[in-house]
Amino acid sequence: MSAPPRLAVCIVTHNEARDLPACLAAAVALETRPLEIVVVDCASRDATLAAARAFAPSAGVRYELCPLPDNRGFAGGMNEALARSTAPWVLTLNADARPAPDYAERLIARAEREAHRGRAVGAVTGRLVRFRPIGTGGGAGDPRILDACGMRLLPTWRHLDRGSGEADRGQLGRPERVFGATGAASLFARRALEDAAVEGEIFDARFHTFREDAELAFRLNERGWEVLYEPAGLCEHRRANLPERRAAMSPEVNYHSLKNRYLLRLYHQSG
């Protein structure tokens, strides 16, 4: 009988044919074993499903594809992926993210070290850097651009990805506790997710897309679970949705972004 999976990589797709093959290749290259990969597709209209079906996992990797008839967004799709996986550690992954082979192992090791010291670790996130587009002329000496080094909450109740858009010059190089972890590429302890769930729902489906990871961070913190930042874990992330690109984003994404800003305050801001 094969050993139960140690890590579940959960990926939600919607029209991700361009990114999914490289994302799956990065996922199966992760050093953590045994490994399960679950892809939930939210009614893609491009070749995403064909790309997902063409993927051939290596030995020691369980792979499941779940096509949904409707677009439930990141939140609804991730809930489906979590329900279909069993591993005690869960790596949520966007299709445009490329974790280094040791990414999950470094995050799990950090969580286990801190747990042995008596800390309740609910999630660990790594050092996310932006892709270097081909043909930009960036040399070996040019700094990478940071994408997210954990999430922080401002007194104004805005939640921001730490370091986002900054040239990577080694800042934010210390392991520390942070407010939250981006759903693009973060590790979660399943028992923490189950503890923070509301009526069995881990991500709030009403958030659909945008800020659903911040809403989960509130619940994890409220339940006493810590979110940690591990700078030794490296992952590339392209990130299509940025404030400066608001005009180019779809009306649906902009709608959910605005709606969810107020939902966060309604849910979690007290007098």
| SS-derived structural category | alpha/beta
Helical run tally: 7
**Helical proportion, percent range:** 25-40%
Which residue ranges are poorly predicted, with pLDDT under 50 across at least 5 consecutive positions? none
Largest sheet entry: 10 strands, mixed
Q: Count every beta strand, where a strand is a DSSP E run of 2 or more residues.
A: 12
- Portion in strands: 25-35%
Q: Span between N and C termini? A: 54 Å
Q: Please state the overall shape, judged from the principal axes of the Cα atoms.
A: globular
The ordered H/E elements are EHEHEHEEHEEEEEEHHEH
Determine the mean pLDDT.
89
> Radius of gyration over alpha carbons?
18 Å
**Assembly level:** single chain
List the SSEs and their pairings.
Blueprint lengths: L6 E7 L6 H9 L6 E8 L5 H7 L6 E8 L4 H12 L4 E5 L3 E3 L3 H14 L4 E10 L15 E3 L2 E3 L5 E3 L14 E3 L6 E5 H7 L15 H11 L3 E12 L13 H18 L3
Parallel strand pairs: 1-2, 1-4, 2-3, 6-12
Antiparallel strand pairs: 4-11, 5-12, 6-7, 6-11, 8-9, 10-12
Please give a structural write-up.
With 271 residues, this protein is of the alpha/beta class. It is 29% helix and 26% strand. The protein contains seven helices and twelve strands. The chain has helices spanning 20-28, 48-54, 73-84, 103-116, 190-196, 212-222, 251-268, and strands at residues 7-13, 35-42, 61-68, 89-93, 97-99, 121-130, 146-148, 151-153, 159-161, 176-178, 185-189, 226-237. The strands form two sheets. Strands 1, 2, 3, 4, 5, 6, 7, 10, 11 and 12 form a ten-stranded mixed beta sheet that branches. Strands 8-9 form a two-stranded antiparallel ribbon. Strand 2 (35-42), helix 2 and strand 3 (61-68) form a beta-alpha-beta unit. The longest helix is centred in the last third of the chain and has 18 residues, at 251-268. The protein starts with 6 loop residues before the first strand and ends with a helix.
